[in-house]
Queue: 2 jobs
Job 1
Amino acid sequence: MLEYVIEGFLMQCDMSGYDIKQNMNNAKFFNASFGSIYPALKKMEAEGLIKSKEIVEGGKYKKIYSLNEAGRDRFLEWLQKPPDIVKSDDEHLVKMSFYQYLPKEKVGELISQFIKSVNALIRRMEVLKSVLGENINEYQRATLAFVIDYYRFMKEWYQRFLEEMNGPVNNQR
């Protein structure tokens, strides 16, 4: 997912590796070390997704990266797929932060699909809780309760966001 986060930041403007790291720190939804960011940038450049140029700023060489059309296309293709709740808890936040690059209708579809996925996960956890019953200790029970509550909160939050995004519903006939 790191490469997609980098592409998302480069959608905004050209940046150095340091600038990308600072944006991650400010965003709070995703974190990576310089030891991960620079190899990813090198790989992405080798794959033809980004390009770089060296500039002199304040008497120092600085490498600035920009997203090319292939990188932009790959990013938008990834962004248009619904987040996979099982694969990564953070993917939904990463994608949400970049949804300004998609049409509002597509965002609504993606969020609706995500809500359905979260609902399915909640149902699976509730079944697991009932199947396990008294066969787990209090810490395991508390952990399972936390997970269920966490996903319920997530579902409710996204439902509210979707309602706000779509505006008030007119119930007149």
Job 2
Amino acid sequence: MKFLGWAGVAFAATLTTVMAQETVPKKIEAEKLAPYYPTPESVVEMMLKLGGLKTGEKMFDLGSGDGRIVIMAARKFGADATGVEFDPDLFTQSMQKIRTLGLQKTARIIHGDIFKQDYSKADMLTVYLLPSSNDKVRPMLEGQLKKGTRIVAHDFSFADWNPEKIQHVDDDGEGRSHTLYLYRR
């Protein structure tokens, strides 16, 4: 009887460890392409409108932070929205909010490296990375994105790409201006 008791405890401990490994993201070895700086909700909406996001379209947010762009894309625009975030705390926070809002069918965050994802089915991408990071992801996007994919970059343009439209936001309500760039592949 004692053996079964200890075996049960060992099994429960093993099961708990396995479950914890599945739910707690592992640290991803990826280059940090930008600091976490949340985009104001009003600017998020402008980005999605500028990109012409439509219901059912596949949308990706590169470096999704707390998931606010993905959540608004799914919730307000009806998009099939995916974010990519390598910071485990931001990944967990954003997935928890997606679950709380019941958006799991249309919104998700990939805990991973931006460079190791497939964006070939994207209708639209949003990007808020540093200029040097935009330069690093540009060749990958040029190789993967289908013709007509829209890219909305926040504050920093892509070198060697000509924006279809530039939108200036004088004040986001927080005393800061923004510039949005719309590109089409």
